[in-house]
Amino acid sequence: MDRFTLTVLCFSTFYCSQGTQGYEVDDKIVGGTEAVPNSVKFMRNVVTSGHCCQTVTPEEIQIVAGEHSLSEVSGNEQVCPVRELLLHEKYNAFDFENDICLLVLDKNIVYNDLVNRASIATDDSSLKLTASVYGWGATSNEAMANSEVLMKVDVPILKNEDCAQSYGNGVIHDFMLCAGADGKDSCKRDTGSPLVCQNAVDEQVLCGTASFGYDCGQPGFPGVYMRISSFSEWINENIQ
């Protein structure tokens, strides 16, 4: 039986501000458009970035499934408290090694036409080379406020060796995935956001979670994500 999970955008309920080696945690959707409402699907266990779980307790977090607009209540939202935070036991705050965390919800999310489960990528070899990243962060380097609606931008997935040429030696690891283009990126306050890929049969799978980057949409500096396929075994072992 396939196991499924969802990803959470950590942007306002708890703020993630830790950087690594002079780089910034991802903050904004840059170069994107408003996402189709409820086009990101959810279920009970939640994947996010590890540094989002460092300084908070479960009581400080709530998951809202079916959310689209932060300023309007549609009636589709499902608010779920978090029972437990499972930070990867080998997470390293200095270089964002194993920057992943699993949230265990205190109650089940009810599936419906707008809320559903998302599978996790277990093998990247069949994934298409364009992915989508979602978030409520600011939409440009100059913008001070977050977006009121969920934003989406399509970004190309890059080879790690090309990404490493920009970030330097020892920064990009095999368990990371780089995606982005000039003017199209995620940045701070999008940390933990889902990078959604399509597999060979056009199914949407969670292939990354936003981790860090250098500024937003800068030429030669794509966003850096945790490669979900590298953590699929860990996720499945800890799903409750």
From TrEMBL:
GO terms for biological process: proteolysis. The keyword Signal applies. The keyword Ion transport does not apply. Keywords: Disulfide bond, Hydrolase, Protease, Secreted, Serine protease, Signal. Residues 1-22 form the signal peptide. One of its GO terms (cellular component) is extracellular space. GO terms for molecular function: serine-type endopeptidase activity. SMART domains: Tryp_SPc. It is found in: Secreted. Residues 46-240 form the Peptidase S1 domain. SUPFAM superfamilies: Trypsin-like serine proteases. Belongs to the peptidase S1 family. CLIP subfamily. This is Peptidase S1 domain-containing protein. The lineage of its organism: Eukaryota, Metazoa, Ecdysozoa, Arthropoda, Crustacea.
